[in-house]
């Protein structure tokens, strides 16, 4: 059975109970030890939600990558070999490590570099909010079009759930529109515009392209949840890292294409959060996503 490993994004390690489910795996502990040695000695045990509130997104990214790499390594050591790996907006880091394209130590250095140089993080550019329609309703194309006309970036995660990024003024219009429709609008999801071209100048300032010299081509297939295509070279992966933060993410379309066009039958959520598994239950269009098999996680 052809299998895909899915590496979710920014909020995947924020909740303590999600991390605790996997914290005792030896492969996770080994990665966390590397964080301590790589400049996060004072943060690796801190709550990720607290770190995010303090703006330490590099630390959040490093901790997320440690957990995801540890979980994926454990599953592969227990005999589950994925045919393709998919990840987006922080999940892309672990995806790149697990395919041999980037050393984990280099990802840790990148995350440390991000926090050390993000003093002028452009909060004024905008924010990101989360929109959810009630049961029986869907986020329709008219709503998507209205967002796009206002210059907002909208990532439709399922038929009922979307992540929207843009200026604070435009997002207030979205909040009003959601209120009229009876939809939930939660925000700011994060205090900057993720999955939006508005954040491109920040990525340029952080000189992320300098990391290209330490990578190599992936040793197994990688599929982009943003570009909806396979990524074959290290250069492809590094370009996709930038796209993961500056373009809308399309999880449902990515999984549907992998299922229909490439014969992938099983989708495993690496976590630590269960967001993708929950999204798949929420959408008739998205293939079913499974949690990491408990019997393999017990085989530590």
TrEMBL record:
Every Malonyl-CoA:ACP transacylase (MAT) domain range: 6-283
This protein's record includes keyword tRNA-binding: no
EC number: 2.3.1.39
GO molecular function terms listed in the Swiss-Prot or TrEMBL record: [acyl-carrier-protein] S-malonyltransferase activity
Listed GO biological process terms: fatty acid biosynthetic process
GO cellular component, one term: cytosol
Entry keywords, A to Z: Acyltransferase, Transferase
Catalytic activity line of the entry: holo-[ACP] + malonyl-CoA = malonyl-[ACP] + CoA
Pfam families (UniProt xref): Acyl_transf_1
Domain of life: Bacteria
Name this protein carries in UniProt: [acyl-carrier-protein] S-malonyltransferase
Species this chain originates from: Mangrovimicrobium sediminis
């Amino acid at each position: 059975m052809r299998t895909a490993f899915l590496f979710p994004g920014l909020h995947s390690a924020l909740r303590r109970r999600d991390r605790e489910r996997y914290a005792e795996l030896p492969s996770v502990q080994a990665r966390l030890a590397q964080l301590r040695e790589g400049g996060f000695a004072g943060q690796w045990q801190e709550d990720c939600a607290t770190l995010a509130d303090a703006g330490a997104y590099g630390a959040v990214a490093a901790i997320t990558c440690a957990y995801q790499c540890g979980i994926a390594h454990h599953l592969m050591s227990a005999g589950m070999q994925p045919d393709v790996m998919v990840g987006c907006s922080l999940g892309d880091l672990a995806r790149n490590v697990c395919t041999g394209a980037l050393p984990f130590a280099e990802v840790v250095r990148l995350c440390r570099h991000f926090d050390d140089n993000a003093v002028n993080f452009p909060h004024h550019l905008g924010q990101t909010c989360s929109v959810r329609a009630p049961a029986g309703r869907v986020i329709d194309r008219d709503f998507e079009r209205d967002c796009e006309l206002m210059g907002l970036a909208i990532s439709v995660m399922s038929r009922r759930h979307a992540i929207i990024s843009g200026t604070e003024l435009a997002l207030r219009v979205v909040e009003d529109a959601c209120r009229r429709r009876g939809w939930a609008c939660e925000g700011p999801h994060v205090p900057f515009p993720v999955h939006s071209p508005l954040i491109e100048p920040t990525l340029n300032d952080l000189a992320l392209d300098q990391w290209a010299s330490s990578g190599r081509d992936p040793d197994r297939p990688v599929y982009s949840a943003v570009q909806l295509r396979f990524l074959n070279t290290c250069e492809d992966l590094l370009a996709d890292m930038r796209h993961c933060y500056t373009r809308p993410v399309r999880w449902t379309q990515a999984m549907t294409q992998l299922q229909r066009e490439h014969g992938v039958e099983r989708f495993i959520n690496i976590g630590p959060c269960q967001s993708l598994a929950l999204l798949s239950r929420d959408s008739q269009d998205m293939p079913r996503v499974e949690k990491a098999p408990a019997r393999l996680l017990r085989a530590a």
